[in-house]
## 1
Amino acid sequence: MSDLTLYHAGPSPFARKVRVAAIELGTMQRITLVEQHVAPGKENAAYARDTNPLKRIPAMRLEDGCTLLDSGLICTYLNEQANGTLVPAGGDIRWQVLNVLAVADGLTELAVAMRYETAVRPEDKRWDAWSDDQREKIVNALDWLEAHADDIAHDVPDLAGIAIVCALDYLDFRHPAVGWREGRDKLVALHAGFADRESFASTAPGG
Amino acid sequence: MSDLTLYHAGPSPFARKVRVAAIELGTMQRITLVEQHVAPGKENAAYARDTNPLKRIPAMRLEDGCTLLDSGLICTYLNEQANGTLVPAGGDIRWQVLNVLAVADGLTELAVAMRYETAVRPEDKRWDAWSDDQREKIVNALDWLEAHADDIAHDVPDLAGIAIVCALDYLDFRHPAVGWREGRDKLVALHAGFADRESFASTAPGG
């Protein structure tokens, strides 16, 4: 039975995080996917009015008409509905996983913002100091994730692992020049260990 | 006993959200405040290396050396440590409050990004279509919050109410031209009802 509607786009790393989580939780059959493209300067008046005032994806409409407007919130909702284990319920491990998730999401936000700066913004309006700063933060975040890779599950992905793989694949897709693999053996192993799972393989960006 | 260190800056709406939450929870005496200023293009190499690779504030160092790197995560940690009620534990109200929180945080992100675009980025690098789009989303988010104001607590603030007031005060501080009060009586009442609480009054931006 499909009672949830997920607004998504193939290249979106945040929408992919939700789809991977839903597949891992075994609840994808509850979800109807609706393609929705957003970008700075793109109007999307109907989407803003009827679905998400922030004009972001993903968004997920529940059966009662309430629409959840944040990827982390949607994943938390799906996890609690399924009595899942994507987020540890207590102990130090809870804060470690949620903290790694926050950095992986922060990395993804930086990568999306840099995509807008270097591919969507008119060339004469780009600000090199800003891009340099973003790139430096992306490298910092990758180094931090490498140093904290052991804090999260490696057998079955938790929400932090899902967010990391979605971030890394997005870097391969939009910013291959970042070269995230170099000197980051733990991230390479984590990524390789999860790549063949149906959840990731069936949702790859550009796939 | 002070066992937590919060990196913050007076004007930061996300750092303020944490300080308001800590005061409401009665745990401010556990926290040592450390001023830290960040901005696009500002180097902050030591802060990036030792504290937050994303160079964002707030960040909160715990006694065991772990540093939480996201304002929502820090608030959740403080709330759970204090057995607080800033976030409802279950029921539809849980998703309503977390969803309002997501939109208030999204509004704040838009307002901070617009501040960077219109005050930090060199004038000849500013892109009007981008600012127009941000401003439209800010208005959309305000209208959405007005329509959903009844979903959250009005007697004692929950985390969504805290985030809304921090967002609205930041608009007054940095973007008064947005005119958030106009036609939004419920937000005006919510804001006025909380303004005199010590948590908000003692943390006002520019105060």
Note: DSSP finds eight helices and four strands in chain B.
## 2
Amino acid sequence: MKLTHLNEKNNPKMVDVGNKTPSTRVANASGIIAMSREAYEAVLNQNNKKGAVIQTAIIAGIMGAKKTHELIPMCHPLFISGIDIEVMQNDEKYEFKLIARVKTEGKTGVEMEALCAVSTALLTFYDMLKAIDKTMVIKDIQLESKTGGKSGDFKR
Amino acid sequence: MKLTHLNEKNNPKMVDVGNKTPSTRVANASGIIAMSREAYEAVLNQNNKKGAVIQTAIIAGIMGAKKTHELIPMCHPLFISGIDIEVMQNDEKYEFKLIARVKTEGKTGVEMEALCAVSTALLTFYDMLKAIDKTMVIKDIQLESKTGGKSGDFKR
Amino acid sequence: MKLTHLNEKNNPKMVDVGNKTPSTRVANASGIIAMSREAYEAVLNQNNKKGAVIQTAIIAGIMGAKKTHELIPMCHPLFISGIDIEVMQNDEKYEFKLIARVKTEGKTGVEMEALCAVSTALLTFYDMLKAIDKTMVIKDIQLESKTGGKSGDFKR
Amino acid sequence: MKLTHLNEKNNPKMVDVGNKTPSTRVANASGIIAMSREAYEAVLNQNNKKGAVIQTAIIAGIMGAKKTHELIPMCHPLFISGIDIEVMQNDEKYEFKLIARVKTEGKTGVEMEALCAVSTALLTFYDMLKAIDKTMVIKDIQLESKTGGKSGDFKR
Amino acid sequence: MKLTHLNEKNNPKMVDVGNKTPSTRVANASGIIAMSREAYEAVLNQNNKKGAVIQTAIIAGIMGAKKTHELIPMCHPLFISGIDIEVMQNDEKYEFKLIARVKTEGKTGVEMEALCAVSTALLTFYDMLKAIDKTMVIKDIQLESKTGGKSGDFKR
Amino acid sequence: MKLTHLNEKNNPKMVDVGNKTPSTRVANASGIIAMSREAYEAVLNQNNKKGAVIQTAIIAGIMGAKKTHELIPMCHPLFISGIDIEVMQNDEKYEFKLIARVKTEGKTGVEMEALCAVSTALLTFYDMLKAIDKTMVIKDIQLESKTGGKSGDFKR
């Protein structure tokens, strides 16, 4: 199977999307960070006051999505028209699950932007909490759904 | 438990490490991307020729580590003195496992740099292969070990 | 009053502008730096020769405007179609007043880009002159006017 | 008076600080944003819940300080060892005053980093509130104090 | 002859392209790096295995093209729709010649993006090989052709 | 001959310089842009007034040097302690020759920083003048000399 990101000499290239039709595209990606009870409660206690950890992670995720084309070598720069990140608690497993929704109107999809948003936000959780728990695990970063574009809709 | 990244008003701050003693610090982080057999074989067939996917991911990981302080809001900029990323195949599970080793001599550790290296490299795998498989999952991003610094060594 | 940059959980989001109609948008912003006579004359003496301070500030302002979406967390990346910065002398007060005019054709305005241009250019004046005068004050950074977009025109 | 940032041909240069002695350096800078009562109360009402505006501004300020050498053409890149930003309310004038404290151990001071932190944070206030009030004014951005370095201490 | 990048006061400005008609634009740029036989063979021996030097240079060139508007002060940010870099060997002269092809649909051309791609890729060759040969020379960076835009097609 | 930037699997790595001794390091690099008489005179006529082209190129070169570790994948981030760029006219050949001098105190050299400074400045000349002459050629980018570091001094 030929990889789209390689040219005929098998060197990386940025795929030519010039002939694609611009359309509205949305991608949702999710990911989880699992932590100790102590770290989990530090987030929530904090949360009752100012939500510093959660909000810092959300802001980092939004800014990280805007950096996607700088981080992922073959990604196209694009106009992101909206980003929203939701944080869900799992009080039994001491986990936070993040869902990022990214939207654009253009010639390329925003799957990578949604994945970068989730990934950067989860890493920020790690950074804010690593003094309490170094064993935290980031897991299950995956595309939940996408709409728009020639390759059609995708739903996990 | 007080979070080190918050000030007395519970607003985020960049921790003052000015009084810490510079020392040699090393961090190892790992992470996995699981994919379909078809995607897995596309990487390896490619690999037999020029290793385009693996090498692009490694380069992205190294460059991503250098961007850590731009991505993670409370991270200190620092001098990275070395980065090496290893890619391991799991032919039975169709997974690639990455291990990033980052080194510095300074006042702060490089756990976040190692985690960012792994995370960016795994996202690059996803980007290069998403035309073949959109269901890939990035998982088990975690700190394997760290040495140096006042908080002492850590081994998972 | 609901803030547009917050979602229903009061966490920051990048507003969805996907449904807005693209239009030509222009924003003008201004700001002032007040300094000692000695610093003021150093700029002008220099100016008679090569205008190094003023021109460095203008270039920094133009480049700063292009970084707006990296600096301001909830700002959309956008295509800037033109930037021009004017520098006006006030020989009596030893002040320089800057006016930045930024233009785009898109779904979001360029107020923040014009304000970032002015702000970065003024900070560059400060940097170039701080060896002479550390008491300089940057003041009156404000939007002068904007045209285009659904919210209509604005004139101070 | 010769400007340190110009070479003998009056072209800009990055000053050679190679022979300076590294020392602990701290800079404090402040700045104010004045707004309508309506905007002011939107921040505080918000603040009672999650402090979204204030916290987003603080995070932007910290990240902006780290970008100083990218924004200000002749600034040296440096290792910032700590950043803290304080936000003070003025309920009578509907103003927020920000004070940024930046610290380093090195060969150059962090005045510009402190000024960039304040400036970026104030611009973020503007961005978050501009849907309510476009007439806000950013003012009185100035260096409050600095310690360390050959040129000695400064206090406004 | 008036320079388009200067305003009426001879200060730099970003040219207003707002009234230009968007069109498909392509630019090809080339450049050469000449090196010792020893360095040349190190690339090729390497190439037989994994092509590490060539591929790292190509990736750097693609990422460098995306940074054009950050590097070149008066360049507009734009949507790049495709980048491909070809590397040609000259076994007699121990030279590599690179050709970058960049495409966009927009209001400004991509000459600078193609030149930045070539330039960054050539510098990366230098970096990867400088331990073997410090006398390498980068030369003949030039625009080969451009199509699209009001100023018409160009062919060297 | 083994390339230092490759690991035992021939994948790129950032060389570990942790054990190197910090020292003062200086690098000088040069490069030339050749142009038509018309373009050449446009620079100089401009130069008689405000030197806009030359000064913009110098500023771009200084800022480009600071971006070296973002552009060149395996380059270490480092503290640059000084940058100076000289521009020399060749009135007979209609060429400008640039020499960049970069200095650091650290564990790695600044050859790449000096080469990036020259390269970015020359590309900026091209950008500022391309409306007059698209046939300009950038050539002879090379390291002139370096001092400091274990590999010893180099002089072309």
Note: The mean pLDDT of chain F is 93.
